[in-house]
Amino acid sequence: MPATLSQLLARPELDLTLLTPAGVGDPDAPVQWAHSSELPDPTPFLSPGQVLLVTGTPDDVDPYIARLAEHGVVGLGFGTEVVRAGTPDALIDACVRHGLPLFEVPYRTPFIAIARFVADRVAADAYARNTWALRASRAISLAALRPDALAAVLTELARQIERPVALIGADGSLDRVSPAGALTAASRDALLAAADPLLRSRRRAAGSADTEAGAFALQTLGAAGRLRGVLAIGSDGLDPAAQQVVTGVVALAGLALEQSRATDAARARLRTAVWRALIAGDRALAESVAEPVLGALPEAPVRVTVLTGTALAAAADWLESHADGFFARDGQELVLMESEAGADAANSGALGPAAAARFELRGGTSAPSSLADLPTALAQAEVARQRATPASPVPSFDDVATAGMLALLQTPDARAVAQTALAPLVAADPGLPALLRTWLDSDGVYDIAARRLGIHRHTLRARVADAERLLGRDLSGFAARADLYAALRATA
């Protein structure tokens, strides 16, 4: 530790005398440096934690001392017999009022002796902390050689810095804490809440959290786009030497987590192979491969969800800890297969909508299907995915089927074809498509449609005849009317 004011006053060779009563200021406050100045306001050149040495004071003593105390000066030394003999009573009174310890420096004690004592203690403290940092780093490096390297490193870090250390996994759950039992339930909740936005950002980032166990510094682990977790380290009172050790541990923890990436990649390839075997109809092969490593496949009937987006890798990592069903990457898609019991809860947080919301994905979910009919379920999920919107990022094929065949016209391709087909009508009369839509909604009955439009039926007949001429087709038949109605619906 650096020198304290009480240690400075206790040095017999300096022969310093405390002039303010006990209880004024903090005698155990660390002294970061000793500086001498005769400026009327030396605070711009001082830092908090320093001792100021003077031989004189300005005429207006009270504001001078107030500025020093407010700036964080921990003590004031007055050198006697240089400008005047003894210390002014006004200076003592001002120091008492503002809580600034004041000591007298005899003429035979040079200010440089005080500065040298403080500097020697600062240097000794820096050397001791650097030595500690080297020892701590060596102990942590040796811990990294143990079988469970990550657990050993975090345990050793917590022991060295004497503060709790926690690891939050990529799925947002608390993976481990060192020492065990260091966090209350409220502290765990606060850490998880602070780590969640860092994980959702999918970028390298740092943060902080205030908990019942104290302040924590948070640092993401892993590469941008595929974070491996968040390291939370108790940060109350960490000095630069301890922060240096922590920086090394962040690198070691990230390396330890990255070493598991090869295993994760192998599991991902296995999942893809199982899914493709299922799609190919080889259920026996899929089950024999999946069960020993991935567990049993979901029981039929199942729902298939297809997800797309830029964060599929991060979503797959998250699903490793959250999926009760089966999932796999297949090209640029993430496919989930859940038993009907789980898929029924889609509107209240099943895996597809949950993953889509967390990682900003879009997708669609099939109707219930047997394992033998997975290709059809996959096609249904793809159809539903085409109707995904920001408000409904993972629609169900059930909803698409309920909406009927005409609802399938609400696609960009259908809209483009319809706009081209109706272009002659719009160019001739922008109101003509709406008139035709009313006529067709009235089952092609001129009297009913004319009343709805507020025009004479003969006028309506003439307008329909104009449309036939512009489109080059006879609208008296069902097929032509159905085609026109589909085009009108697609552009609605």
In the predicted model, the low-confidence regions spanning at least 5 consecutive residues are: 343-349
Global Rg: 38 Å
Per the principal axes of the C-alpha atoms, what is the gross shape?
elongated
Counting helices, strands and paired strands, the structural category is: alpha+beta
Strand order of the largest sheet: 1-5-4-3-2
> Span between N and C termini?
77 Å
What percentage of the residues does DSSP assign to strands (E)? 15-25%
Mean pLDDT: 85
In helices, the fraction of residues equals 40-55%
How many strands, what sense, and barrel or not for the largest sheet? 5 strands, mixed
Number of helices: 19
Helices and strands in order:
Layout lengths: L4 H6 L6 E2 L14 E4 L13 E5 L6 H11 L3 E5 L9 H10 L3 E4 L5 H33 L5 H13 L3 E5 L4 E5 L6 H17 L4 E6 L2 E10 L2 E9 L5 H19 L2 H19 L3 H12 L7 E7 L3 H11 L3 E5 L2 E7 H4 L7 H9 L2 E4 L8 H12 L11 H7 L8 H17 L3 H10 L4 H8 L3 H15 L6 H13 L2
Parallel strand pairs: 2-3, 3-4, 4-5
Antiparallel strand pairs: 1-5, 6-7, 6-10, 8-9, 9-10, 11-13, 11-14, 12-13
Helix pairs in contact: 2-3, 4-5, 4-7, 5-7, 8-9, 10-12, 15-19, 16-17, 16-19, 17-18
Q: Can you walk me through this structure?
A:
With 492 residues, this protein is α+β, with helices and mostly antiparallel strands. It has helices spanning 5-10, 61-71, 89-98, 111-143, 149-161, 185-201, 240-258, 261-279, 283-294, 312-322, 340-343, 351-359, 374-385, 397-403, 412-428, 432-441, 446-453, 457-471, 478-490; strands at residues 17-18, 33-36, 50-54, 75-79, 102-105, 165-169, 174-178, 206-211, 214-223, 226-234, 302-308, 326-330, 333-339, 362-365. Strands 1-5-4-3-2 form a 5-stranded mixed beta sheet. It has a 5-stranded antiparallel beta sheet with strand order 7-6-10-9-8. α4 (111-143) runs parallel beside α7. The radius of gyration is 38 Å and the shape is elongated. Mean pLDDT is 85; it is low at 343-349.
